[in-house]
Amino acid sequence: MSTKKELELEGELLLKEPGQYKVILLNDDYTSMDFVVEVLMSIFHKNYQEAEQIMLDIHRQDRGLCGVYTYEVAETKVMQVSRLAREHGYPLKATMEEA
Ligand code: TYC
């Protein structure tokens, strides 16, 4: 059982600290490696070396962390990935999960 004080503190924390969400990029057999590097640089603000490393990790391990953001920012990045991929004819997908 939580005391009134504990519930109040919990409520304050929930108000003050928005949840953090991981944006994960998924591997597939069709998206080009160069395009994934471009996505990581343009949407997730990685430099070329970081982007290439993350892309290779995803290629080998099937998924990879692109960044941790608030819910709305994470949701926007997931949508930007699917839009850019669709525009270029690639099936690349990103998902988000609670950090
Ligand atoms: N597996 C892809 C290929 O061999 C490259 C790739 C890497 C695709 C990362 C998606 O999130 C991805 N062309």
Please, could you describe this protein's structure?
- By secondary structure, the protein is α+β, with helices and mostly antiparallel strands.
- The chain is 55% helix and 20% strand.
- The protein contains four helices and three strands, in the order H-E-H-H-E-H-E.
- The chain has helices at 4-16, 33-42, 48-61, 71-87, and strands at residues 20-26, 63-70, 94-98.
- The model has no long low-confidence stretch (mean pLDDT 91).
- Bound molecules: L-tyrosinamide.
Structural features:
99 residues; alpha+beta; Ribosomal Protein L30, Chain: A; three-stranded antiparallel sheet; 4 helices; 3 strands; elongated; binds L-tyrosinamide
Please give the domain count: 1
What is the CATH architecture assignment? Answer: 2-Layer Sandwich
CATH C-level class: Alpha Beta
* First-last Cα distance: 27 Å
Order of helices and strands: HEHHEHE
Poorly predicted regions:
none
Function: Involved in the modulation of the specificity of the ClpAP-mediated ATP-dependent protein degradation.
Domain Adaptor protein ClpS core: 16-95
Pfam family, one: ClpS
Protein name: ATP-dependent Clp protease adapter protein ClpS
Topology:
Layout (H helix, E strand, L loop, with lengths): L3 H13 L3 E7 L6 H10 L5 H14 L1 E8 H17 L6 E5 L1
The structure holds L-tyrosinamide.
The site of L-tyrosinamide (TYC) has 13 residues, from strand 1, helix 2 and helix 3.
